[in-house]
Task: structure prediction
Amino acid sequence: MRITLNNREEIIEADQLTIDELIKYKNFTFRLLVTKINGKLIKKENRKNAIIKDGDNVAVLHMISGG
Amino acid sequence: MKFEEIKDKLKSKTVGIAGCGGLGSNCAVALARVRVGNLLIVDFDVIEESNLNRQYYFYDQIGEKKSAALKDNIKKINPEVNVIAFDKKLDSKSILEIFKDCDVIVEAFDKAEMKHMIIETVLENFPDKAIVSGIGMAGWGDNSSIKTIQHNNLYICGDQKTEASEENPPLAPRVGIVANMQANIVLEILLK
Result:
């Protein structure tokens, strides 16, 4: 499927994935994430159920300290 | 647009600034200089000497509460700005109370956990409100890595990669760049 991940087009070798599966697929190892599908916030506890489909706009944003 | 028109548009606007450290103090000063009408500034902390490498405070303010000292500094720059200072540690409940009438919220915390908390709180509860966050600004140099990305109402300014630590401290130039980028996005939103 083709999705937009963090404002970039990506081809993912799967028909659909949960957010948790996408994080694993991309080898993201960040500790603190904000995740969204099509603009909707997906909290940590829902990442195992939230399905990403072809054409979706996904954001996986990691938080780091400093300010 | 002439500066008089800009000031006229901005005078009725309210910006909430969560944290008065390196990001919050510099962002608030930039917004005060262009005369954003109302600034709600929130921090529970006290100024320490180590803060002066990047935060908009003075040597003789060491030991003062950041929220009150920032209000004093803003008033010296532009007494027309209405500043409400809260000496408070924000949590998801107080964010909803204090920032409910803001046009834009600036995330200006230092800790990743707090950034996470306010972004999730705002996205979940204020879906139509813009939040402008600062993520990744430690160290020095590498100007071209600092940018702004947008995901709906969430804007992130910074390089999104350099985490502050003992070995890679946040310093005035890069923190100031990101704080002013946040202020610049706030203006873009308010003047739309």
User: Anything to note?
Assistant: The domain at 3-190 of chain B is CATH 3.40.50.720 (Rossmann fold). The helical segments of chain B are 3-10, 22-33, 66-77, 92-98, 112-125, 172-190.
